Amino acid sequence: MLSRDADSLYWLSRYVERAENLARVLDVAYRMASMPLSYNGVDSNEWESALVTAGALEEFRQVYDEVTPANVIEFLAFSEANPSSIQCCFDTARQNARSVRSALTSEMWEAINSAWLDLRHLSVRKISVQDLPRFLNLVKEASLRYDGSAMRTMLRNDAYWFSRLGVYVERADNTARVLDVKYHVLLPQDAEVGGGIDYYHWAAILRSVSALVSYQWVYHQNLRPWLVADLLILRQEMPRSLAACYAALSSHLDDIAHRYGTTGSAQRLARAAHARLTNRTIDDIFQVGLHEFLQEFLAENNRLGQSITNQYLC
Amino acid sequence: MNGNGGPTREAYRVLEGWLNSAPSQLLEHRRDEAELLFRKVGITFAVYGNAEAEERLIPFDIIPRIMSGQEWAHLSRGLEQRARALNLFLKDIYGPREILRAGIIPPELIFQNPHYRPQMNGLSVSGGVYVQVAGIDVVRVDDKDFYVLEDNLRTPSGVSYMLENREVMLRLFPDLMAMQRIRPIENYVDELLGTLKSVVPERGSSDPVVVLLTPGSYNSAYYEHSFLADRMGVELVEGRDLVVRDEIVYMRTTEGPKRVDVIYSRLDDDFLDPLVFRPDSALGVPGLIAAYRAGNVTIANAPGTGVADDKAIYSYVPDIVRFYMGEEAILKNVPTWRCREREAMSYVMDNLHELVVKQVNGSGGYGMLVGPHSTTEMCDQFRNLIRANPDNYVAQPTLALSTSPIFTESGLAPRHVDLRPFVLTGRDGVRIVPGGLTRVALKSGSLVVNSSQGGGTKDTWVLSE
Fold first, then answer.
1. Chain A contact probe: residue of B54, B55, B241, B254 with most A CBs at under 10 A
2. Looking at the complex, does the CB of residue A134 fall below 8 Å from at least one CB of chain B?
3. Which residue would you say has higher pLDDT here, B281 or B48?
4. Tens of pLDDT along B72-97?
5. B216 contact A CB<8A
């Protein structure tokens, strides 16, 4: 297929996934901020950590003086000054979709187009803080519909694989960020200090990747920080874990290599990263340092994205 | 349906009966449904210079325009004759130029024409075909005669609306459509692909790779480009997707460069190749014309076809048909005064309030004067424009255009329509699917049907005999 089309599909999926991740992050911030103050700990600022998770704190500070709920919501959800705001994500996603119309199924196009129309309409009259959950739901549903349409209607060929690569590169990035922002509450020594307060932080991490219930099904026990990390980094059965993302990435990259009859650096990088995630225990990771591990992972994930681009998309 | 109060035309009988028996709310419901369908599939039309309406729907009218098989047979014979003649004309202009030597057309109309492309001289194009896709705009003025308004020989658009309009009608009015024998048009895309494959260069592949070249997603007809590429199953490429090496055109794919044999170009000539035409074009492909001249790729339509479709040449088409085909033109031309001719100009100046004045190279209904609908000041303004540059203007009488009923808030009402059938010409002959794009002026009395000026479209039914 055309490199430009593959590139558009890849970024289309990345932007839809990014919008959904932002919605989750905002959702958690909203929930945490509505808790009684004592639950949160005195110095915690959930809205600020939402900005950090989104990697947007610096850009935010250039536009706003103060971290208020309304400012953060505007910046992360609607602002044109933030190229990764939910609104901009859907704009960019739709532009990509438009330029690759013929490689999309009509279901996928309709999912993107109607989400874009719905959200555009909402943002004009700027929603209030209380309306946020309803808005976030719309975003999540749009992403589900897009993803579901892709899974159910696309031919299993290179177009499909490139669009899945976008999903998983973006998702891995997001899961690692969510963990990294909160890594301090996951360190084992904090477990005793934390008590009730930390419980909410751990639950928030899980919630931001829709894994709170899954946690119970996998471990059958109370929230333990190292298990939260285990679930989101190493568990293959957890769909947003780093291991699951890399299982999918290396499998789809292999599909492409098989179809084209040649393999390259993207395949090697993905396979190596996947092997590292499969052969480790969570204890190994805590020994290296969770923060260091996550930083290294984010850099590696970036390199994979670059390598996919160089090999196929330009 | 019945002109102005006369009896209902035969072709509209079934529709009339159906309308009379349909419950009153039905049409409104179906119209709303149609709007929703169009909005959902994203068939939009971008209008230049209008940021607010960046993506707008072309208004769709749910009442079909209907032609009898007989009417169509006459029209399609005329279209085929005209398309063949214009192709021969282009072949001659970029070849021996017999028509100039015969003194039939003033040479300066060719050589001073901004669409004349000297790069095409002496080039033998694949299959001798210059205009693979033509959109020839016609209007009916009375029971039998069609007049040609305009030959669009460069990058005519609108065929996607023709096809989508039919799809929407089939979804909305299956009952009505089952009551008569409407000739299908859905095969247009197959015919187009067949036409394009037929003009593969002699040195090209036996299983030719066809691509559709678009200026990109900001072009007003981008929806159509992606629609056609999708239906034909060919790649929709932009200039940056193509690269020329050793006079061979390749597209960049995820598997590396892949050779291209036929380019269905929806890009203006000017932008095709910055090495030959506009050097500032970022939309084109450096080296494309060299590859074309080397006979390694076919560009459809050929560069330089615009020399045959401007409004000054238009007035000579009946002579062109006579010269190359040895027969009279089946389709009439609208009488045209060329302001470049002294007598014609003085007639135009004296009768401006009764005439339509057009720029020779204009399109889209821009820069024209509709005399009967204009103020004295506007007429005076145009008189000055014409005097300053007479070569640039032609004038035509305002025709008593035929009307077709549309569905309005206050029921059915007549509006002026034209028709753009699409004429495909390949190495193996001419193909025309029965019908075309009917464009309709939505304002009562208006004669302007262009979609950029608020015109709408409707489905066109050609009945079997």
1. B254
2. no
3. B281
4. 999 999 999 999 999 999 999 999 99
5. yes
Nearest CA in chain B to A311: B254
Distance of residue A27 Cα from the nearest chain B Cα, in angstroms = 29
Q: Cβ contact (<8 Å) for B226 and A1?
A: no
- Which pLDDT does position A194 carry in this prediction? 47
Same domain? A169 vs A312: yes
Look at residue B131 in the predicted model and tell me its pLDDT: 98
Under 8 Å between Cβ of A85 and A77 = yes
For the segment(s) B337-397, the CATH number from 3.40.50.300, 3.30.1490.270, 3.55.50.30, 3.50.50.60 is: 3.30.1490.270
pLDDT of residue B353: 86
Q: Looking at A120, A154, A188, which one is the last position of a domain? A: A154
- Find residues 401-430 of chain B whose CB sits inside 8 Å of chain A: none
Banded pLDDT at A106 (limits 50, 70, 90): confident
- Residue A160 and residue A108 share a domain: no
Q: And the tokens for B358? A: 């057009």
- CB burial of residue A194 (10 Å; 0-12, 13-18, 19+): middle
Average pLDDT, chain B: 89
Percent of chain A with pLDDT over 70: 93
d(CA A306, CA A309): 5
For the residues B276-295, what does the mean pLDDT come to? 92
**A173 and A293 assigned to the same domain:** yes
Neighboring chain B residues of A110 at a CB cutoff of 8 Å: 40-42
Q: What is residue A100's predicted lDDT score, i.e. its pLDDT?
A: 86
Give pLDDT tens digits for B368-378. Answer: 888 888 888 88
Measured CA to CA, the distance from residue A79 to residue A73 in angstroms comes to: 9
Q: Decide if B40 and A113 are in contact by the 8 Å CB cutoff.
A: yes
CB-based contact (8 Å) between A98 and chain B? yes
Containing structural domain, residue A131: 1-154
SS (H, E, C) chain A: CEHHHHHHHHHHHHHHHHHHHHHHHHHHHHHHHCCCHHHHCCCCCHHHHHHHHCCCHHHHHHHCCCCCHHHHHHHHHHCCCCCCCHHHHHHHHHHHHHHCHHHCCHHHHHHHHHHHHHHHHHHHCCCCHHHHHHHHHHHHHHHHHHHHHHHHHCCCCHHHHHHHHHHHHHHHHHHHHHHHHCHHHHCCCHHHHHCHHHHHHHHHHHHHCCCHHHHHHHHCCCCCHHHHHHHHHCCCCCCCCHHHHHHHHHHHHHHHHHHHCCCCHHHHHHHHHHHHHHCCCHHHHHHHCHHHHHHHHHHHHHHHHHHHHHHHHC
ipTM of the complex: 0.80
Eight-state DSSP code of residue B119: G
Say whether both A195 and A310 belong to one domain: yes
